[in-house]
Amino acid sequence: MFLDLDLLSSLLFSPSPWRGRTSEILSSLPLQILLYVNGIYYIFYFLATLAMIIYKSHVFSYPDDLLAPDLAVLFLMAILEVPRSYLGFKGNLTEAEAPLGLSLGLTVGSVVLCVYLLLWQTYVLWADVLLNAVLLSAYGLESGLKVTAIAAFVS
């Protein structure tokens, strides 16, 4: 069997073409998983909250002038959720600080609307408390992971 010593030595002892380059991945897998799970949970949250508002308007004496603000807050929250999630996904996967920062800002708006539905809604059922507590917990975890990811991207 023929062995080319020059080829073998050049493969073993020549400098690597990848030397000096780093391919460290800075995007956060826990953040990506939480964004995905939170997106699925939000669909459930929206439908359940909408169903409860409809239920409360039929069962309880729901004032007509207070039904519209509760529905408006829920739909505004749904409208905010789409760019919030998109910017979170995009910022994490592209390792960019700006989209993650914008997503973090939209998260603050979503938290305020969620607190409205938790505390100042016309009628608050125990299911409302449970759904909002889970959503607020997810927002809190997500915000912490976003801040950590932004810090990793900047440094």
Assign the structural class, choosing from mainly alpha, mainly beta, alpha/beta, alpha+beta, or little secondary structure: mainly alpha
What is the makeup of the main sheet?
Answer: none
Strand percentage, roughly?
A: under 5%
Helix content: over 70%
Give the distance, in angstroms, between the N- and C-terminal Cα atoms. Answer: 53 Å
Subcellular location: Cell projection, Cilium; Membrane
Pfam family, one: Transmemb_17
Keywords: Cell projection, Membrane, Transmembrane, Transmembrane helix
Main location: other
Task: Characterise the protein shown here.
The radius of gyration is 24 Å and the shape is elongated. With 155 residues, it is mainly alpha-helical. The mean pLDDT is 90. α3 packs antiparallel against α4 and α4 (97-120) runs antiparallel to α5. It is 79% helix and 0% strand. It has one domain. The chain has 5 helices and no strands. The N and C termini lie far apart (53 Å). The relative contact order is 0.14. The chain has helices spanning 5-13, 29-59, 64-93, 97-120, 126-154. Keywords: Cell projection, Membrane, Transmembrane, Transmembrane helix. It holds the Pfam family Transmemb_17.
Write the layout of secondary structure elements.
Layout (H helix, E strand, L loop, with lengths): L4 H9 L15 H31 L4 H30 L3 H24 L5 H29 L1
Helix pairs in contact: 2-3, 2-5, 3-4, 4-5
Concise description?
This protein is mainly alpha-helical. The chain is built from five helices and no strands. The protein has one domain (27-154).
